[in-house]
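Structure first, sequence second, as always.
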């Protein structure tokens, strides 16, 4: 076994690998860019090595810098995590040439599976079901148009060397192909240094299901059940779960056996994932094989009781798996939510800045948090926007989802925008709860754009009850300091969104009783005090978790179940007077194109004087390794262009002005 390993990655996956290595008694080495000098993975490691400036192309993607760090520290093996160099065959070969162990598959297997064209051919030869499409690389847009027409729309255009949702576009119409092809090709070239493209048939009503496998160097291979990964946005996974609510035992066995057959066909060792797309008829087709640890591996660990990182390390050290297929458990259900630094209200555009608050739920046997950041850390535009993974476990799917909803309600992040409210909304979505999922789920259920949920009557009552208790606690503290009444009031008005109630509040031990209309809510808490950011308690027999902050106009800003609402607690007279106050109109920004996120201008499609129709592109902005096309929302004439290709933009910076 190794005495010291280097983790050629950053963030939460570097921390994740270090936890297992430390438990196994191994010393760890971190590498870091200038932007990550004070990061958690650097602090956690036994040693650390600076490898370059912030851009990953000048640090984490430079194999020679990593190799030098390995030699300088005497590390015997390298775990690549995911992303960066994790599927770079040349990197694995360079380590091998120096007698350093790569904790992953052999370079030949990485090469074979890393090329989508070659991997599809090998999969077919190994007896794996493959999707209809063109199996040769395409570099010309005109050729792509001809091939797509032959296959029939809709089609998937994707970079041959792509992954992680980058370099992929779904095209429904011939007139949209050229733009999609060009944009996906740019992402493939910029992210992977490869502009070859593939086009294949896009399966309607598809589900994305993947098989986790593990193989050793002694010819043993097992599949570790499946993961449902259909909740996606721009082909980037958002929520994953294991097992899948769609897969039965026979389908699981068939998919698993095909995944193992492919692994054996290419002499695979280590952890790997074979991804499939399935239709409503339960037919499944090979998409690709990821020759690395997956972001969503914790849900598999939850239901099998296995540590995949430990298994990878032991296999890399030459040990046999030690388990057979019959030993693989499927116990309970696990769900993972990816918490991204992005603004759902602004089309999920990236959000960067400092984490002024980072309060996580308590970790238990049923709640796991993988993260590489802490309060005070900076979220940079240079790296992926995922800042944490929240994983919950339950004896069945309903219990795992319920725990996820409660944990999300208690996950408080301040200073940047995140998708936490959106994730909480999904957990309470009826279709999600029923398991009737496709990769179109977000587009179909949310229209591709998320607006904060309007609380239904049940949620509104919860928020009203919590607001009454915390207002009563504040009043009680004032009473203790100034000799005023103790916070019990019978003449209050509570406004929650569009709902408004005349209520009475009576403080009791461990909470209060709130009379709303003809019923009384028994609100009890676990010791909330003024200044606490999270309320944990019960309303009746229901456990609730609510984030608490001061909002506008002396309101309480309460967040629960995907709804973020300003709740006003006032006397009846104050509420009557407030209703008579004039409302201030927001400023007119319709003549400006503002940058919706910090980023880099890739291209500008218009000049001053151009007339632009609704839907036509205005410019392309790159942020967090993704290209974002900004389009005209209506027919306009460009008066002035304020930004040029190569410019760095701040959020809300003026890009152009319209007449």
């Amino acid at each position: 076994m190794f005495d010291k390993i280097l983790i050629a990655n950053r963030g939460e996956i570097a921390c994740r690998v270090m936890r297992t290595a430390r438990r196994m008694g191994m010393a760890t080495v971190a590498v870091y860019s200038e932007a990550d000098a004070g990061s958690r993975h650097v602090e956690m490691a036994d040693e650390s090595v600076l490898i370059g400036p912030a851009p990953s192309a000048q640090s984490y993607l430079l194999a020679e810098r990593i190799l030098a760090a390995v030699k300088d520290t005497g590390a015997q093996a390298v775990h690549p995590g995911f992303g960066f160099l994790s599927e770079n065959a040349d990197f694995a070969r360079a380590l091998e040439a120096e007698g350093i162990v790569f904790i992953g598959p052999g370079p030949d297997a990485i090469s074979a599976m890393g090329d989508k064209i070659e991997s599809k051919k090998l999969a077919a030869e190994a007896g794996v079901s493959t999707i209809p499409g063109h199996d040769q690389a395409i570099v010309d847009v005109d050729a792509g148009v001809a091939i797509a027409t032959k296959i029939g729309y809709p089609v998937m255009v994707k970079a041959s060397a792509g992954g992680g949702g980058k370099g992929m576009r779904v095209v429904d119409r011939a007139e949209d192909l050229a733009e999609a092809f060009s944009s996906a090709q740019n992402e493939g070239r910029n992210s992977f240094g490869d502009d070859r493209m593939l086009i294949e048939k896009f399966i309607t009503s598809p589900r994305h299901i993947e098989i986790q496998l593990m193989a050793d160097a002694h010819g043993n291979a097992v599949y570790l059940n499946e993961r449902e990964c259909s909740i996606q946005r721009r082909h980037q996974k958002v929520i994953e779960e294991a097992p899948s609510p769609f897969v039965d035992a026979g389908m699981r066995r068939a998919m698993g056996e095909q995944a193992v057959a492919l692994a054996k066909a290419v002499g695979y060792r280590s952890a790997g994932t074979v991804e499939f797309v399935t239709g409503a008829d339960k037919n499944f087709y090979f998409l690709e094989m990821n020759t690395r640890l997956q972001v969503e591996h914790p849900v598999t660990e939850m239901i099998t009781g296995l540590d995949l990182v430990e298994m990878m390390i032991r296999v890399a050290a030459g040990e046999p798996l030690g388990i057979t297929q019959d030993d693989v458990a499927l116990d309970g259900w696990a769900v993972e939510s990816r918490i991204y630094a992005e603004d759902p209200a602004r089309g999920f555009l990236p959000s960067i800045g400092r984490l002024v608050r980072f309060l996580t739920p308590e970790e238990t046997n049923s709640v796991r948090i993988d993260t590489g950041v802490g309060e005070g850390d900076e979220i940079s535009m240079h790296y992926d926007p995922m800042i944490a993974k929240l994983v919950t476990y339950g004896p069945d799917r309903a219990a795992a989802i319920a725990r996820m909803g409660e944990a999300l309600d208690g996950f408080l992040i301040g200073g940047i925008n995140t998708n936490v409210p959106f994730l909480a909304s999904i957990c309470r979505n009826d279709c999600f709860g029923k398991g009737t999922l496709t990769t179109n789920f977000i587009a179909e259920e949310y229209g591709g754009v998320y607006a904060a949920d309007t609380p239904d009557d049940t949620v509104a009552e919860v928020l009203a009850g919590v607001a009454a208790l915390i207002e009563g606690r504040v009043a009680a503290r004032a009473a203790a300091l100034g000799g005023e009444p103790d916070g019990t009031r019978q003449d209050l008005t509570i406004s929650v969104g569009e709902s408004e109630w005349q209520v009475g509040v009576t403080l009791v031990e461990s909470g209060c009783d709130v009379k709303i209309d003809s019923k009384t809510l028994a609100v009890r808490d676990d010791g909330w005090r003024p200044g606490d950011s999270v309320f944990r308690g019960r309303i009746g027999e229901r456990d609730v978790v609510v984030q608490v902050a001061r909002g506008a106009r002396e309101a309480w800003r309460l967040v629960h179940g995907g709804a973020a609402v300003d709740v006003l607690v006032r006397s009846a007279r104050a509420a009557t007077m407030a209703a008579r106050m004039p409302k201030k109109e927001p400023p007119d920004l319709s003549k400006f194109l503002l940058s919706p996120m910090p980023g880099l201008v890739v291209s500008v499609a218009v000049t001053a004087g151009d007339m632009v129709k609704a839907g036509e592109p205005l410019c392309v902005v790159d942020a967090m390794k993704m290209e974002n096309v900004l389009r005209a929302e209506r027919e306009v004439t460009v008066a002035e262009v304020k930004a040029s290709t190569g410019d760095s933009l701040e959020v809300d910076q003026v890009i152009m002005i319209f007449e």
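Margin note: DSSP finds 17 helices and 39 strands in the chain.
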